[in-house]
Amino acid sequence: MNNPLLQPFTHLKGPHGAIQFDQVKNEHFLPAFEQALSEARENLKKIKTQTMTPDFENTIVALETSSENLDFVAGLFSNYLHAHTNDTLQALAKEVMPKLAEFSNDVSLDPELFARVKAVHDLNDLNESNGSKPKLDREQQQLLTETYRDFVRNGALLSDAQKTRLREIDSELSVQETEYGERVLKGTQAFELLLTDKADLAGLPASVVDGAASLAKERGKTSGWLITLDYPSLVPFLKFSEKRDLREKVWRAAQGVSASDGAFDNRTVAIRITTLRTQRAKLLGYKNHAHFVLEERMATNPETVKAFLTKLNEPSKKAAERDLEELRKFSGQSDLQPWDFAFHSEKLKQKKFSFNEEELKPHFKLENVIQGVFEHAKRLYDLQFTARKDLPTYHPDVQVFEVNDLKTGDYIGLFYADFFPRPSKQNGAWMTSFKDQGLLGGQIHRPHVSIVCNLTKPTETAPSLLGLQEVKTIFHEFGHALHLLLSQCKYRSLAGPNVYWDFVELPSQIMENWVNEQESLHFFANHYQTGEVLSAEWVKKIQESEKFQAGYQSLRQISFAMLDMAWHGVGEEELPKQGSEVEAYETNAVKNFVLFKHVEGTMMSSHFTHIFSGGYSAGYYSYKWAEVLAADAFEFFKEKGVFNREVADRFRSHVLSRGGTEHPMELYKRFRGREPDPNALLRQDGLI
Asked: Which domains, ranges and CATH numbers included, belong to the chain?
């Protein structure tokens, strides 16, 4: 009776149905999973045993809403697992993830359910073919198409023996993918570099030193300065430390996470995951996992992806080679190594643009940046964010805001923000949700959205002061949040970011562009002590520096995307067979897309969570794909004015509010008036 997760999700008693995080305990999850699974199975039984002729409401909508409480419990558990985990939850994940995979298969492989779905689908096709007036609106049509396609793509047409094998694969995959992420987290947290000699702090800005001292105290060290592999510690150390030997040590540790023998070794896990994915794709009739995934992407197939990346690679690599040669000459180091790159790049950047990012940080106090993104939402979309300190959270660092329409006062949703690193949180940044927008319990609900980051923490002497890239991270994830907050769909599975994965980054990446605009920076980039507004001179420096080493950065992203395709765009026989082969396999896969000679003992494959445990398998290219869309879309804003309401209204109406209710190219063309210009990104980066 005291388990809050046993209540129907739609009956949560917090304001706007907010989760009472202060009442949620580890031991609540397993009973909640068991009850929610039982409820979902009973709902599926009702769909199958009803005597009414299959139609859209009693079959398609019934399926859409059959697992509402299970979706809630599983989503909440996943959020805890990524943002505030512990040993108990990680152990529980290995128990419940196979059960969730089994349930998913029970749905998609059930012949009676599929027969009903197929009956509705075939009748709709018949009506279309004979010219009958369609009975379904556009969104209903899309839900029907997606539901039928999901059944087929998840084995509905397989034989009984094949279905059994598919269940085995999905069950093992759920365990292996969870294991991969857990090993990366533990491998990342296992490294600590404690500095006790002040001489080892040479070159580090005061803010970095203060942060390292605070981190040492937080981790129970009696003295010294602690450097970890969390981004707010790792990145500035590699950028500013004058101790080349220490930079090398930290860089090797970061690039070697889970890459060697031991408890956290992920090399064989990566092989097993990709082998299972390839077997699954073959079982379903596809050449490989990439062909399976890309069937439901704008790119449609691996050949298109590789052609797209190859087209970007030529100007990117030429520019990157110039970038590296310039850096070698500037540094005076003919043997320039990867752990030297960020350090000398920062020095060169300062020389070329009189630009020191540390000087910028006082203008980017976290609280001001938060208000800045809220101001953007107000000017573009009439949204108002109000702090709700009365609502509980899963960690003291998390903030909650109620979102309303400024003109009508209508409630839009809840927005959670979790900004700082901690041992219980995975590295990186992401947007997630506790409740999606759409149909729940028979009513249309507004969403509860969250962004999770690992930003610079406040110290005893200063508030959280962010680097420019950290500011962009907030704007990026906030763009994802807007995609869900502004969703106006009926069905949750089509709402907000539930779109093709090479379209999902458009709302996030376009938001980053405002960080470079004078008009934007003017109202939030104020010095945290003096209140001084960031000058026009500084804004010009930021804009000019945006193209600094753009070729090198573009080539880096292309190499990651090509590595993804090397793992997922081949047959099982081409994959490495044992962990010791992974390093050479990766080196060969990216050799034409990197400039530095490979450093033995380092690799991306052992800690590439995006593609092995984060949902981006055969989809990492989508970042570059969406960059093209975002560059083209922002050119439209630039033509009319970066806060032009006509353009903003078009973007809201045709992109942000429509989710996955139509093919993304149709939505984009409705916004832009044409297809995207593929050269927009190259123009933006100064590569053509």
From this structure: 4-108+110-153 (1.10.1370.40), 191-255 (no CATH), 362-549+623-684 (1.10.1370.40)
